[in-house]
Amino acid sequence: MDTRERIVNAAADLMGRHGYTGTGLKQIAAESGAPFGSIYHFFPDGKTELTAAALRWSGEGYQLLVEGVIDGEADLLDGLRACFEGAAEVLIASDYADACPIETVALEVASTDETLRLVTAEIFANWIESAASRFEAAGLDHDEARHLGIAFISALEGAFVLSRALKSPEPMYAAGRPVVDAIVAALARADRRGPS
Amino acid sequence: MDTRERIVNAAADLMGRHGYTGTGLKQIAAESGAPFGSIYHFFPDGKTELTAAALRWSGEGYQLLVEGVIDGEADLLDGLRACFEGAAEVLIASDYADACPIETVALEVASTDETLRLVTAEIFANWIESAASRFEAAGLDHDEARHLGIAFISALEGAFVLSRALKSPEPMYAAGRPVVDAIVAALARADRRGPS
DNA sequence: GTCTATACTTTGATAGAC
DNA sequence: GTCTATCAAAGTATAGAC
Lengths: 196, 196
Prior knowledge:
In chain A, 79% of the residues lie in helices and 0% in strands. Chain A is an all-alpha fold. Chain B binds a DNA duplex (18 and 18 nucleotides) through residues 3, 21, 24-26, 34-38, 40-41, 46-47.
């Protein structure tokens, strides 16, 4: 792994746990084993540019992870349930440190850094589209698939907040059920309208 | 309003928008109009103690606000819908700055400050209990009311993240529907089991 | 209790030797 | 490209006059 990659990796890891303002460039240099000057060599625009790269890297990685979990199950609904269950397991295993890698940063920059806010918006939009496309492929119409995609990501993000604060996996399960049930109901309605 | 109250008020406001590490004590002193030294006069333990007070103040205020919205509607379900709708309106009116007042801080301190994490846990627990007690009063059994209370708060929190990042009210509506529908269904089941 | 000045640390960022 | 030394600013915290 080259130096640039190690820096981005360390930034993504630290920011996922401690947030944007809570993570210093010196800390990133130390954690990655890279000399401090290398950060500005690879990211001339400094912390903003590095953070954008870290967010995109985390965002892509997490999307692939979730897609793997969903597509790893024969049934779409089982795949969705596995997401909440898997997230709960990772939370417990990491003592509630490893959750959504971009959520804390997204909230921090939402009203303070428009450049980074746009990066988080693009990532969330990708996640929503990833989920919605699967719902649409399963038979839902475009709008309904999008709304439930948003509800799915919202439930995950909301449950991450509560689970980390309460140090309990309970929200992961309680928040997942209504969304999965809503998709079950929507698929049943779609099936009644036009069975494949 | 006395000095202490102004300080707590300013801290709660600033931290709600810019987070914990993103808000400085000097900024709080300036915003509140209080001299810097007064912060340490009223909060000898410094930033941690002040933040705990700000979180509790925000947490209580937001709970009262939401309870007012819910109880302001004749029907519980309309009250829940009004929460998501009202949150969407406030987001738009504030250019997506005013959302959940403790969410950003909760994520920031979850893995870095156990004292403050416990404060956010207590606040979220109060919110969950506030919602669950209303669901139970409407006819749901204790466990189901609690699970749906958690799902309700999770949906709100998750939608806040997405709405602020995307600068769109859409998540507020999309995330709210499955939870409200789940409560509709649960109430119908409870009614079938034992109509009042 | 109020307010100012200051100490100490850490931050993001830069310059320049190698 | 790598690495170190250093800057100016902002962070928390403290001391002490009034």
